[in-house]
Automatic annotation (TrEMBL):
Residues 134-180 form the RNA polymerase sigma-70 region domain. Gene3D superfamilies: 1.10.1740.10, Winged helix-like DNA-binding domain superfamily/Winged helix DNA-binding domain (1.10.10.10). Signal peptide: none annotated. This is Sigma-70 family RNA polymerase sigma factor. It comes from Polyangium fumosum.
Length: 190
């Protein structure tokens, strides 16, 4: 995590957040949903990234942390997607293109929502404008989830409860929203 965040956040701060994540993992582990090592690793990474988001003194790392968190949630959401053995090579190439587009949008969404200085806002304005148009075109629940999580800083638990859905369903909506955003952004750049 230190390397991924560019050595901006002191390791002691990351350790403190990681310990919180470890305790949360111990309290909430459900063997029916994931293996213990996978669950603990995710909880610890998310706790570190959430800790960075809470600390104002790490503004430079905030955008990077938000982008990494978005990309990781997308990866988890896509992990449940099966690979059809009947796919042709062209189908696999097309699926890989869509995956890369979705990750690019996930990272862009995180970077745009985490911009904090005037210079960052200016340099990201065009990307933000394209994302805003794409977000506005999302179905209502997906749009609300994206806006509330990335631009208002709300947790998936909160948003899911307000929308009357489970956290796992909110994760699926998130994955779907990112894929729809990727398709919209890709269509505009072609």
């Amino acid at each position: 995590m230190v390397r991924r965040l560019g050595h901006v956040v002191p390791i002691e701060d990351m350790r403190a957040s990681a310990q919180e994540g470890l305790l949360e993992a111990a309290r909430t582990f459900d063997p029916a949903r994931a293996s213990l090592p996978t669950y603990v690793a995710r909880k610890v990474r998310w706790a570190i990234l959430d800790g960075i988001k809470r600390e104002r003194r790490f503004r430079r790392a905030l955008a990077r942390a938000t982008a990494l968190l978005c990309a990781e949630r997308l990866s988890i959401g896509l992990a449940s997607t099966s690979d059809d053995a009947g796919f042709s090579e062209d189908d696999h190439v097309s699926a890989l293109d869509r995956l890369l587009e979705a990750h690019a949008v996930a990272l862009a969404l995180g970077l745009v929502s985490g911009a904090s200085t005037p210079e960052e806002h200016i340099s990201r304005a065009e990307m933000a404008h394209a994302l805003r148009r794409a977000i506005d075109a999302l179905p209502e629940r997906e749009r609300k989830l994206v806006e509330r999580h990335y631009f208002q800083g709300e947790d998936f638990d909160e948003i899911a409860a307000d929308l009357g859905i489970s956290k796992s369903w909110a994760s699926r909506l998130h994955t779907q929203a990112i894929q729809l955003l990727a398709t919209a952004i890709a269509a505009r750049t072609r």
